[in-house]
Amino acid sequence: MSLLEEKTLSTEKIFSGKVIDLQVDEVKLPNGKTAKRELIKHPGAVAIIAVTAENKIVMVEQFRKALEKTIIEIPAGKLEKGEKPADCARRELEEETGYDCESMVLLNSFYTSPGFADEIVHVYLAKGLKKKENAAGLDEDEFVNLMELSLDEAQQAIKEKRICDAKTVFAVQYIQLQEVLKS
After folding, report:
1. Is 131 a member of any domain?
2. Residue 65 lies in a domain
3. Quick check: is 140 catalytic?
4. Is 4 in contact with 30 (CB distance < 8 Å)?
5. Are 71 and 62 in contact (CB under 8 A)?
């Protein structure tokens, strides 16, 4: 055991849901004492940075109950059991936006809140966007407005806190950096 590692002594499953599971672990700390850790288990997710030929960022606007407000986000979604992240990214892009793409390139993966959750988000860049005629639709409990924002409009939406989630701020900053590198 490393000097910082916590050894799990027991796990109590509290809740098992559609999106997350909640458990409480009793752990042995490096100093020999014990503590409780409340943990969220999540299957992982994908997020897609998609830019049209007109240099518009494809986004969706949707109500987020946890925040009690409507926000603007890049397309994203939860991994299904056994699903590869790249396949999930293509599926979510089509379902949420009606777009398909020539290629899907993994840019990075990050943990959203490692202090209490194991959720990992895989961020993809969709290249060669094209609208699909018979695109798969949204899940029955999903309601979104499709939006296409310029970089300036996205930056303004961040200032107005209409874009306020990490994956979308990351996406806008990624696109901004690409613009800077071009000049």
Report:
1. yes
2. yes
3. yes
4. yes
5. yes
What stretch of H or E contains 140?
none
**Spatial CA neighbour of 146 closest among 66, 77, 73:** 73
Mean pLDDT of 153-162: 98
Report d(CA 91, CA 146) in Å as an integer: 16
Q: Pick the catalytic residue: 73, 95, 140, 153?
A: 140
Neighbours of 85 (CB within 10 A): 19
d(CA 62, CA 104): 24
Does 77 score more than 60 pLDDT?
yes
Total count of domains within the chain: 2
Whether 1 is covered by a domain: the verdict is no
Please tell me whether residues 13 and 94 are part of one structural domain: no
Domain of 30? 7-41
pTM of the model: 0.92
* pLDDT per position as a tens digit, 158-173: 999 999 999 999 999 9
User: Which CATH number goes with the domain that contains 114?
Assistant: 3.90.79.10
Which residues, listed in sequence order, are joined to residue 25 by a DSSP beta bridge? 11, 37
